[in-house]
Design brief:
This protein is α/β, with parallel strands linked by helices and 411 residues long. The chain has eleven helices and twelve strands. A hairpin with a 5-residue loop joins β11 and β12.
């Protein structure tokens, strides 16, 4: 079958999807909703490779909940037919295995359909994989020939092709236009939907940014609860020093509708606090962007988050840590509990009360050995670690120091 399943005359009872990328996940979600049994074979260690793992997790959970079987880190090696069924041989982490189904859809190995267009005769330059090379005006190396969309390479997105077509038409008409957008939104129409624009958290860190992240689950959003669509979340990534918005990722209901606001914010170079100060209608799914921005800035009131330390508190912690480390070198050497006054080894610890032990004085009643079974032994005392004792002291000192610092700053 083709990658969209449009050639099918009837639904397969068992559909095998080779490839867990965008098309594989969209097909698996839609055919699973129609009642087909789904098996996904993905070579990488996660579905939707290249997508933020936190955004992929709800999609994978939804597929498994619907009864789908997912094989990660596996590749298809052979395809045969037996008894009117498709038999797919795969190689996985635990060895070779077979999957038997009615239809197999292959959604990997995209190649441009550029052969037979006469590009070579026209002198149009193409890449090693056959993609047409264009400049920001969608113009090829031949001045009067333009190319748009998937034939120019990744990302393979319909809205990208549409925008490139508009730019190419305006350039041909003599108007000033370029493909100079700041970020291209990615849309995955799985269930739940996934959308991304700008940098992911890992990409922002790799680019050298000091990252601040805000998250808001749809499970805490009124509109999502009212529509019983609480799977997923909104994730906002910003630069901690400048406050500039770097990227947004959404997984959940209406994700591909909500991402437009984030794309506009990135196009305008907006800060994370811009979304926080923008009033969002209630109850709507768009409030998730506002709530995630609030969380990134440490002002969230609808989700419980650990208190973020201020710069002054972090500086105080570092000074205290230096004092603790320097004081650690002057401590007395550790002496085991079983050692004598000079460190010599003592005999084994007694495990039962001695009958000859003198009765204690005072108001306490003397212990009666007869009331304790002879076979019962007292548990051996576990020597406390000096590192744990010192860590506890350091923790108490840190609390006292921060309390005094807060009092001084507040005063």
């Amino acid at each position: 079958m083709d990658r969209r399943g449009s050639s099918l005359e009837e639904l397969p009872e068992h559909l095998i999807c080779v490839g867990g990328g965008v098309i594989g996940m969209e097909t698996a979600s839609s055919f699973g909703k129609l009642g087909c049994k789904i098996t996904v074979i993905e070579l990488m260690e996660q579905l939707l490779p290249g997508t933020d793992p936190e955004l992929v997790r709800p999609v994978q959970q939804a597929l498994k909940k619907s009864g789908a079987t997912i094989h990660l880190g596996s590749k298809a090696t052979a395809l045969s037919e037996k008894g009117g069924k498709a038999v797919l041989t795969c190689e996985g982490p635990k060895g070779s295995f077979e999957v038997v189904g009615d239809k197999v859809m292959v959604s990997i190995g995209f190649r441009p359909n550029s052969k037979g267009l006469g590009l070579e005769q026209a002198g149009v330059k193409v890449s090693d994989r056959g993609f047409v090379t264009v400049d920001p005006a969608c113009r090829t190396n031949v001045g009067h020939i333009y190319a748009i969309g998937d034939v120019t390479g990744m990302p393979f997105l319909a809205h990208r092709a549409t925008k490139m077509g508009v730019v190419a038409a305006e350039v041909i008409a003599g108007q000033p236009a370029l493909c100079d957008w700041q970020a291209m939104p990615l849309g995955i129409f799985s269930d739940p939907e996934v959308a991304q624009v700008g940098l992911s958290e890992q990409e922002a860190k790799d680019a050298g940014h000091e990252v601040m992240v805000g998250k808001f689950p749809f499970a805490a959003l009124g509109r999502a609860m009212a529509q019983n669509s609480t799977a997923g979340m909104v994730k906002v990534i910003g630069d901690a020093k400048s406050g500039i918005l770097l990227g947004v990722g959404i997984v959940g209901p209406r994700a591909n509708d909500l991402i437009a606001e984030a794309a506009l914010a990135l196009e305008l170079g907006a800060a994370v606090e811009t979304s926080r100060f923008t009033v969002h209608s209630h109850p709507t799914f768009a409030e998730g962007l506002f709530e995630a921005a609030e969380d990134a800035l440490g002002h969230a009131i609808h989700v419980a988050r650990p208190k973020r330390k201020t710069a002054l508190e972090k500086q105080s912690d570092q000074l205290l840590l230096k004092k603790v480390v320097s004081a650690g070198s002057t401590r007395r050497p550790y002496r085991p509990p079983d050692a004598g006054p000079r460190g010599e080894a003592r005999g084994p610890r007694r495990t039962a009360p001695s009958p000859a032990r003198a009765a204690p004085t005072g108001c306490r009643r003397p212990p009666d050995p007869a009331r304790r079974p002879a076979a019962t032994a007292l548990p051996a005392a576990r020597p406390s670690s000096p590192a744990l004792r010192w860590s506890a002291r350091a923790g108490i000192a840190a609390v006292i120091a921060l309390s005094l610092l807060e009092a001084l700053v507040g005063g």
